[in-house]
Specification:
The chain is mainly α and about 200 residues long. Helix content is about 65%, strand content about 0%. The longest helix is centred in the N-terminal third of the chain and has 22 residues.
Length: about 200
């Protein structure tokens, strides 16, 4: 455990990673401020020192941080236009979204109204989230359409909405016993790619 008064580099990420490990191993019921700092090997008061709003603020910031990370990944998706299969590129985004907060973290935020409200307020204020990811997917699909790898007339905005909206639904309903979200996301990306007339070469249809 870090001695009192010794600075810990990147303490936010250390606490976030500890929370994710706890959630994966023991579920939402195990997530307390003390459990997180113990998992992280930090002093017990460290979480409250960095998150004045306590566990609710911590959960909200964890979700927002993971959304922002995924949005940054998605922003590079248009650069992949013309490379690989469209279906696989879409699946990469779906996987990143499922990993961004994970069903357990997303479900945890829903059970904490104060955390949910913090997330909503931050997104409304412009914090990167699903809207930014959806825009990046649409931009990628537009680029593929210009290259002739999607059918002319493909509604790229609708496909991006279908992908991001469905994965969001899978995150929000990822309780115990629910179907495996990654498998469902794979079926969705395959269907969307077929609907867009995706191919490896010019479509022109």
């Amino acid at each position: 455990m870090s001695p009192r008064g010794v600075a810990i580099p990147d303490v936010r990420e250390r606490l976030f990673a500890a929370a994710e490990q706890l959630l994966a191993r023991e579920g939402p019921g195990a997530l307390t401020s003390r459990a997180i700092t113990t998992e992280a090997g930090c002093a017990k008061g460290l979480l409250h020192a960095h998150f004045a709003g306590g566990l609710d603020e911590f959960v909200a910031e964890l979700c927002l941080d993971r959304f922002a990370r995924t949005a940054e990944q998605a922003a590079h998706l248009p650069e992949r236009a013309g490379q690989g299969a469209v279906e696989e590129n879409l699946a990469t985004v779906a996987d990143a979204l499922l990993d961004s907060a994970g069903p357990v973290i997303a479900g945890l935020a829903l059970t904490r109204p104060t955390a949910s409200e913090r997330i909503r307020t931050a997104l409304q204020a412009g914090a990167p989230g699903y809207e930014a990811i959806q825009g990046a997917v649409a931009d990628y699909l537009d680029a593929e359409r210009r290259l002739g790898r999607l059918a002319n007339g493909t509604d790229t905005t609708a496909i991006a909405l279908a992908l991001v909206g469905t994965v969001h639904h899978l995150l929000m309903t990822g309780w115990a016993g629910a179907p495996e979200p990654r498998e469902q996301a794979r079926r969705l990306t395959a269907m969307l790619a077929r609907a867009a007339g995706a191919g490896d070469g010019p479509s022109g249809s």
